[in-house]
């Protein structure tokens, strides 16, 4: 695991507004229409809480930025009217509706969180120049928990961080309230994210102390900044905390002393932060301690903590990233892809109701292409959280632009269960993503990587959204609503994931990266390592046999229709062919192309697409801020060069193995 360090002892105070710039509306017709409709503001009746006050402040500030007017507050109905509409049929917590005409707008919400989300939605509509006349919108979040996990350490480093140092920690301390922390909470709320876990899932001793009074008092100040934006604070917890801190000689989840320890710790945490959300736990994984140490299973481990925090309404997100990380590469039957299903599916029905099993989108580790994890279809009695990775650990590390909502759409649309509600978007009870944020001025290292942060929030709120619509929304809110600019930037984003996949790892095989830091091509880097990340390329072919008939049996973990499709080369989709099968280089794919020719073609075509990006970006010169333009151009130029390196390394690797030349006569280095 890589930790990023620099010599800075204080976080950057310089930061941009991302998609909340609220630039003055240039279209005169839209500006006049909205000015008439929003000239006055009627607050909701009844007592005001911190979240509703935030909603009103956001509306007033946004309207002023967009329209140059400060709405007058009224106590009688008129202009912009805010109302709580508890108990409205068909709406649940956090929901809202917006109705508008030439004379005014009515924003109704079930609760204060709904008012806040509705306020952001209304301002986004204004920013895009939508007319208030005939406006009818009603929205509810698809799932109640929409969360981002930060892999930040108390020293300020970020594991798999590609955008600077931590927003929360520095030099062993918790950073206090600041304008940047408030801006962070505001951005989260603007896309409906309502929970954040701020420390690394690999919880070492310094981070274990976060649940002790010395640091809890500072965490309470962080929670106080998040609270008015409807965002709950979570922490990653060390399963072996009582042992790590030297207070007990065991962390056995069935030991009465351990049970009492977690109950006492929960009481301290919730006393300091009454609305604390709960804990994320990585256990028995990659060297992290867990219940296996004591002959217990993961239901025993998760229930220990869940039972202790249940009286406070706390939740446990128990990660299913559990596998043998000391595998022998010569063993062709042990398959890392099987591990989560094998460990957890027999435990269905044994987890307490305040537990979510946090399951990665695929069975391996955030590769450019994987099948959906079969565990989502296997545990109907257990709540499950879909874990995605916004941080581009294996997709260019925010030095390459790679628009991930297109990748996520393929998972969400997979029919993982039988029936009308059998898609992954229906099977996931919560949405979680690994953060791509740091203290860089643009938050994400690459300005265009902000689109992935925005896109996760939007899909967690509404899993049915199309990636193209997300790209247009983000472009319009970030750079302005001019149609040609919006379409141009959205068009540049769309297809970048497919291009990245094309010039890196072919046909679902994955893992052709440098070990450790995971950046750049190294086709054999993990091939003889312990991590179970093999492609088994030889002079005859490439790919992993995961069939029931002759391989690891992984394909059989899916529902019958999917299992049958993946089992047979005649029906297995090309994009996953090498994930499920070891195929000869001459095997002809459904596309009509042989495996080896597909590898060559994809890498040439992907590199060509990357080479075109700097020229496509040049069309926006002078239309977006100069600093953003030049920073993005620099990264796109690097991406084009790096894609060419990927193309040449991978194509040469397979040419040397197969001896098969490119049918199109292009240069492949020998």
Feature tags:
six-stranded mixed β-sheet; alpha/beta; disordered N terminus; TIM Barrel; single chain; 670 residues; Alpha-d-glucuronidase, C-terminal Domain; 3 domains; eight-stranded parallel barrel; Chitobiase, domain 2
Number of helices: 20
Cα-based radius of gyration, to the nearest Å: 25 Å
The share of residues in helices is: 25-40%
Per CATH, what is the topology of the largest domain?
TIM Barrel
Supply the helix-strand structural class.
alpha/beta
Mean pLDDT: 96
* CATH hierarchy class name of the largest domain: Alpha Beta
CATH H-level superfamily of the largest domain: Glycosidases
Largest sheet properties: 8 strands, parallel, barrel
- The termini sit apart by 33 Å
List the helices and strands and how they pair.
Layout: H1 28-37, E1 40-42, H2 50-67, E2 72-73, E3 80-84, E4 96-101, E5 104-109, H3 112-127, E6 135-139, E7 146-149, E8 169-170, E9 173-174, H4 179-190, E10 195-197, H5 205-208, H6 213-226, E11 232-237, H7 241-244, H8 256-272, E12 278-281, H9 298-309, E13 315-319, H10 339-344, E14 355-360, E15 384-389, H11 405-412, H12 424-427, E16 430-434, H13 450-461, H14 467-479, H15 483-493, H16 496-503, E17 541-542, H17 560-567, H18 577-580, E18 583-584, H19 595-618, H20 626-658
Parallel strand pairs: 1-2, 1-3, 3-5, 7-10, 7-16, 10-11, 11-12, 12-13, 13-14, 14-15, 15-16
Antiparallel strand pairs: 4-5, 4-6, 8-9, 17-18
Helix pairs in contact: 2-3, 8-9, 13-14, 14-15, 16-19, 19-20
